[in-house]
């Protein structure tokens, strides 16, 4: 029996079979776009799987699949591809697990189980509940015993419980990685090395805006480290002297990314959100999905009145409330409805807080990070990349957060 679906197969374009992430990439593969080679463990396997390990037959198929895309000892990325993500109405950005730099069949099998389980994580349940999906309830049976109740709100757009496929792809050791949004203008964010820190909002990336007249805006970020694969681990190291003090993309690369974004937008039928990686001069598309929400109108603002803190307008809207400085999950119990979350950077595990917080302010991050995308989808005002926010803003201080302009104003000392 062969359950695996090659990313180039026609069946891989059906999100009900392979989930939203894999279906979009399969469409690009069949149109000649450079996407890392891979295969999918489809939703049907998730639906019928029993136990806390992969059965012998599926484990053997997984090993065959790994050999086909580079060998059992070659690193791969094992990525979630749920029926409730990467759709036109909901991205579920960062809400399910992906495991990078996976080496070997046993490690890959553990990563598959982790991806399956993440469909029922607290953050995924909170996200689906916030998006109005009845798939946000507690599952009566999770991965290993079938699936839980709910309604898919993702790209499959079908009644029935959300389901998880798993995408396994060759790992790209990137020189530069990033994200881009297309639309009236193309916005690009990038960082040296791998893009895990960028999409997780842990760094403030370099950014560019490209319109009909060419590159209209260039802003250097504050990234001091890069992430790279070393064996089966991701390691951070300080940027080299050559990498410091200069943008991580040339103008030629920016324009090439813009052209690629327009090509993908045409294939997907509308403005697109792409994650990409560059090795040498080759651009690889790692993810592509429809844009679910427009960027805030003030994301390019540079001037702010004296006395305001300012950063990047990441999610529109305004909110006034008391500051709650958050360092990690242990601080969740201190958060009350309407509080303004202030942190160094957000984490996907914090999604349950987004449902009742008044606004979010971070020291690091970009306009296109997972947290910024989710904040826009659920209507949470957000300003990111506010220097020293956790030091300058004290617990309990009342502030006004303007996610349209990218400003934070203290209303009391």
Automatic annotation (TrEMBL):
SUPFAM superfamilies: Glutathione synthetase ATP-binding domain-like, Phosphohistidine domain. Residues 336-406 form the PEP-utilising enzyme mobile domain. Residues 132-151 have a biased composition (Gly residues). Residues 70-293 form the Pyruvate phosphate dikinase AMP/ATP-binding domain. It comes from the Bacteria. Residues 152-161 have a biased composition (Low complexity). Residues 130-161 are annotated as: Disordered. InterPro entries: ATP_grasp_subdomain_1, PEP-util_enz_mobile_dom, PEP_Utilizing_Enz, Phosphohistidine_dom_sf, PPDK_AMP/ATP-bd. This is PEP-utilizing enzyme. It comes from Ornithinimicrobium faecis.
């Amino acid at each position: 029996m062969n359950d695996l679906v090659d990313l180039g197969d026609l069946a891989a374009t059906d999100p009900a079979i392979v989930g939203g992430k894999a279906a979009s990439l399969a469409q690009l593969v069949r149109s000649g776009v450079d996407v890392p080679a891979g295969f999918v463990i489809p939703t049907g396997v998730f639906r019928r799987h029993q136990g806390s390990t992969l059965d012998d037959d599926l484990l053997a198929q997984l090993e065959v699949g790994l050999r086909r895309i580079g060998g059992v000892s070659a690193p791969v990325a094992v990525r979630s591809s749920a029926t409730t993500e990467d759709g036109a109405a909901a991205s579920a950005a960062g809400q399910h697990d992906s495991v990078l730099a996976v080496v070997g069949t046993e490690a890959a099998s553990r990563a598959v189980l982790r991806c399956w389980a993440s469909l029922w994580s607290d953050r995924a349940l909170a996200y689906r509940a916030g998006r109005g999906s009845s798939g946000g309830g507690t599952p009566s049976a999770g991965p290993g015993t079938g699936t839980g109740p709910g309604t898919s709100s993702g790209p499959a757009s079908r009644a029935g419980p959300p389901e998880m496929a798993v995408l396994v792809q060759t790992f790209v050791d990137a020189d530069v990685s990033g994200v881009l949004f297309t639309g009236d203008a193309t916005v690009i964010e990038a960082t040296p090395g791998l893009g895990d820190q960028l999409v997780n909002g842990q760094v403030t990336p370099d950014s560019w805006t490209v319109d009909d007249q060419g590159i209209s805006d260039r802003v250097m970020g504050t990234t001091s480290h890069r992430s790279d694969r070393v064996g089966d681990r991701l390691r951070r190291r300080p940027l080299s002297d050559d990498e410091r003090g200069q943008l991580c993309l040339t103008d030629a690369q920016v324009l090439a990314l813009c052209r690629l974004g327009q090509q993908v937008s045409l294939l997907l039928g509308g403005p697109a959100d792409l994650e990409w990686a560059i090795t040498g001069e080759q651009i690889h598309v790692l993810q592509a999905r429809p844009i679910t929400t427009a960027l805030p109108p003030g994301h390019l603002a540079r001037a702010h009145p004296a006395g305001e803190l300012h950063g990047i307008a990441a999610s529109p809207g305004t909110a006034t409330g008391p500051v709650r400085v958050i360092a990690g999950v242990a601080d969740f119990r201190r958060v009350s409805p309407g509080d303004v979350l202030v942190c160094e950077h957000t984490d996907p595990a914090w999604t349950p807080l987004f449902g009742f917080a008044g606004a979010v302010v971070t020291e690091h991050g970009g306009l296109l990070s997972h947290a910024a995308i989710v904040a826009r989808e659920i209507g949470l005002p957000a300003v990111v990349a506010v220097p020293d926010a956790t030091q300058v803003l004290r617990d309990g201080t009342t502030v006004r957060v303007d996610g349209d302009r990218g400003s934070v104003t203290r209303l009391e000392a």
